[in-house]
């Protein structure tokens, strides 16, 4: 019977690939890629079986002795095993490129038995690696290829894309005063598109998304012919609802989060994704408006956001320049939020068992 398999590359995908000679030939060079263990545990829990497949140029020769490979490799395997990550098989090509063997990726020699026996599901199995040769191997096997990149497509993003459980939300709200649409993805950096009709407010919302590190698309059609109150209030409500929905069960999140300076101003944000809505706001502004945005609405926006998120938020700012104080508040909130929503495992950060 065929199974769901992940055929995963080693160097540059499971572990960091050294910049010197691309060989992990000592314990000093061994380091795991970020979030790889919780990611593989999640994929195993989804029914995937793991097979490691790696090119190790000239392994067993004088330039790359077997012992130099075995010591860090065994330590890596022990680290995975100790956390519950199990590889069904480790497949290694030891040949040099000019030997033109049948087992060096993207050639399929190492997986010929899987292909002959049709032991992997074509529709669900995946090759994951950091090089185009891994993607080409996937094509030859007739399955999906995923290109790993620590910065743009890391293990959290890969898990989200494979399990279909990305932390996303789309919330729309229409009243006689505003029409607000907010779409977010907490595990992607882009796109960020914001249009509320209030230029400075757009800039501040972009600061939240930028410093929190997630994708955010906001579209608002509000009664700006009256003032900016309803637009900013309702945006805060809908954004808060979207964040709360995207967080889901909140498993693995850091939960807490930041102090941030901006020129002569500084802001502090104490944040707890506690499920208990509360805000304490302490900032005074000398100007009534920044562009077309009224500064008195800054506190009200964060109040609407905190209550819709069901979060405890303490925000404060000091300084001389109103622009700097307001912007530092939005940036600081974004940093605190980004820290709090970051996932590191599957446990719920609460002794009560609920957030």
Write the layout of secondary structure elements.
Layout: E1 5-8, H1 36-45, E2 49-55, H2 66-82, E3 87-93, H3 112-117, E4 126-129, H4 132-141, E5 144-147, H5 155-163, E6 168-174, E7 178-185, E8 192-195, H6 199-212, E9 215-222, H7 229-247, E10 259-262, E11 265-272, E12 278-282, E13 289-290, E14 293-294, H8 296-309, E15 312-318, H9 322-341
Parallel strand pairs: 1-2, 1-4, 2-3, 4-5, 8-9, 12-15
Antiparallel strand pairs: 6-7, 7-9, 10-11, 11-15, 13-14
Helix pairs in contact: 1-5, 6-9, 7-8
Quickly describe the structure:
Helices cover 34% and strands 23% of the residues. By secondary structure, it is of the alpha/beta class.
Number of strands: 15
For the record, the CATH class of the largest domain is Alpha Beta
Which geometry do the CA atoms define? Answer: elongated
Please, what is the CATH homologous superfamily of the largest domain?
Answer: Imidazole glycerol phosphate dehydratase, domain 1
Radius of gyration: 25 Å
Helical content class: 25-40%
Structural class: alpha/beta
**pLDDT < 50 stretches:** none
If helices are DSSP runs of H or I spanning 4 or more residues, what is the number of helices?
Answer: 9
| CATH-defined topology of the largest domain | Ribosomal Protein S5, domain 2
Ends apart, CA distance between termini: 41 Å
Let me know the largest β-sheet.
5 strands, parallel
* Shape-level CATH architecture of the largest domain: 2-Layer Sandwich
User: Which percent band covers the strand fraction?
Assistant: 15-25%
The overall pLDDT average reads 92
**Looking across the biggest beta sheet, what order are the strands in?**
3-2-1-4-5
Order of helices and strands: EHEHEHEHEHEEEHEHEEEEEHEH
Total discrete domains: 2
């Amino acid at each position: 019977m065929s199974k769901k398999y992940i055929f995963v590359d080693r160097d540059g995908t499971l572990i960091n690939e050294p910049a010197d000679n691309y060989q992990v030939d000592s314990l000093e060079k061994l380091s795991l890629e970020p979030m790889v263990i919780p990611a593989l545990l999640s994929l195993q829990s989804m029914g995937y079986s793991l097979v490691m497949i790696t090119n190790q140029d000239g392994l067993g020769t004088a330039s790359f002795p077997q012992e130099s490979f075995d010591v860090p490799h065994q330590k890596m395997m022990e680290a995975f095993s100790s956390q519950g990550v199990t590889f069904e098989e480790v497949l290694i090509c030891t040949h040099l490129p000019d030997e033109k063997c049948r087992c060096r990726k993207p050639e399929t020699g190492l997986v010929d038995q899987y292909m002959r026996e049709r032991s992997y599901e074509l529709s669900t199995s995946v090759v994951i690696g950091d090089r185009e040769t891994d993607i080409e191997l996937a094509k030859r096997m007739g399955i999906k290829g995923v290109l790993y990149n620590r910065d743009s497509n890391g293990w959290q993003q890969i898990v989200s894309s494979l399990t279909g459980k990305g932390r996303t939300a789309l919330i729309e709200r229409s009243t006689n005063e505003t029409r607000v649409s907010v779409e977010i993805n907490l595990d992607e950096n882009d796109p960020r598109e914001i249009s509320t009709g209030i230029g400075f407010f757009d800039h501040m919302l972009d600061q939240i998304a930028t410093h929190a590190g997630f994708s955010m698309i906001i579209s608002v059609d509000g009664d700006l012919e009256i003032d900016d109150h309803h637009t900013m209030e309702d945006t805060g409500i809908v954004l808060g609802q979207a964040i709360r929905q995207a967080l889901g069960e909140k498993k693995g999140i850091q939960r807490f989060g930041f102090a941030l300076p901006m020129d002569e101003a500084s802001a502090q944000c104490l944040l707890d994704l506690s499920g208990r809505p509360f805000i304490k706001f302490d900032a005074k502004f000398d100007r009534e408006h920044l562009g077309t945005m009224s500064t008195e609405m800054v506190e009200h926006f964060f109040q609407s956001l905190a209550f819709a998120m069901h979060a405890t938020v303490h925000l404060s700012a000091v300084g001389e320049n109103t622009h700097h104080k307001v912007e530092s508040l939005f940036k600081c909130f974004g940093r605190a939020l980004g820290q709090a929503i970051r996932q590191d495992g599957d446990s719920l950060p609460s002794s009560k068992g609920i957030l």
